[in-house]
Write a structure and sequence with these properties.
Length: 463
Amino acid sequence: MDLAAKDKKYVWHPFTQMKDWAKEDILVIERGEGSYLIDTQGRRYLDGVSSLWCNVHGHQVPEIDQAIEDQLGKIAHTTFLGLTHPSAILLAEKLVKLNPGLSRVFYSDSGSEAVEIALKMAFQYWQHRGLRKKSKFVRLKHAYHGDTIGAVSVGGMDLFHEIFHPLLFKCFEAPSPYVYRWPKGGPPVKVRDGALSALESILKKNHREIAALIMEPLIQGAAGMITQPKGYISAVRKLTRRYNVLLIFDEVATGFGRTGTMFAYEQERAVPDLLTLAKGLTGGYLPLAATLASEEIYKAFLGNYKEFKAFFHGHTFTANPLACRAAIASLELFEKRGLLDLIQKRIAQTQKRWAAFKELSIVGDIRQAGLMIGIELVQNQKTKQSFDLKEQIGVQVIRRARAKGLILRPLGSVIVLMPVLSMSEEEVEKLLDITYESIKETNDSLSVFRRRGSVLRRKSLRL
């Protein structure tokens, strides 16, 4: 039995309908080199989604490989409960220096856990302050913050999580400033102000029971790459301060250069009270997450032993030394390679290509924040009518791309481009060429199908 057959016999994959998987001609990825993934047959594929949005410097990066090897020569793991170690200490220092205004780092293992921690910290903070009614949260419509129960509770994607509704705590939901599908239409400024007005109404009426607002800044990733108009996140920061509500920025997807700056919130100088990080933290090498908190929040947890003010949360592999050492090496590479400057060039390179994409009749909208890109496919550009899920339009596109040597993963009808941040100019051009060709071929096949359908309908009417 080969590896693919064994996978189908023994493995259960995430976010995958396994009945369909059993019929698929699946790829078994064996190696990675730079921006490429290589399967067991030796076929090479450009990594167009950064191995689920986390790879920063490419695969087999000598500096990160060496850092992990050096750490292995010392210790692979030790508990972080009651002990500490150099890599975790030095990484925390780097993260704090990168985020002025935040002063404490709490480690965990995944983005979902980082969010759970932020929610629990926000809740417990107000309990220690004596404001016990402040126990609820505000989320944005279409939000996604992970798959653990607390993270799902502050999410707004019924497609993924509706079945778990009985397990979740209730939240207030504010409208997302989704310009392309804003109910009354209008320019970005009008959409921004409308969304902010609705948010302020929620805060004004309910601030005495709201602990925090949680959101992804600049762009909602898993929601379909929904970008936020300029000025939105800085205005949200002002509103949460005005109504004495904590602000949690979830930068699990947007952090570490994805939006063109090290962290998305920097672009509007909107420093949150709590910040969640994961994915690109280790350069995409090992699982590691962090929740950063302000000193004000941290101090609320200080007290005598018998007061039980400590934050009772932790994981076996919290601050794993191998992961922390990889993260340090990754952060050092940002400066060594001038990666943030390189990203600006790649952003400009991609933006030059969108005019041609928009000429394809199924391309409704293209949204971009840095190198986070979503291409929304629609049945009708004028009416913005979406494709039915059963048509699997995104799957049609990525299958064509895979045959051409590019790995993509859609979000429903949105084709997501999240290139490895260190991709060369030639590699980005290849990514865009294949994506365009794959959408065009899908567009052309639909046009043929529709023409045939129209002919058949006319014939039936004559009969």
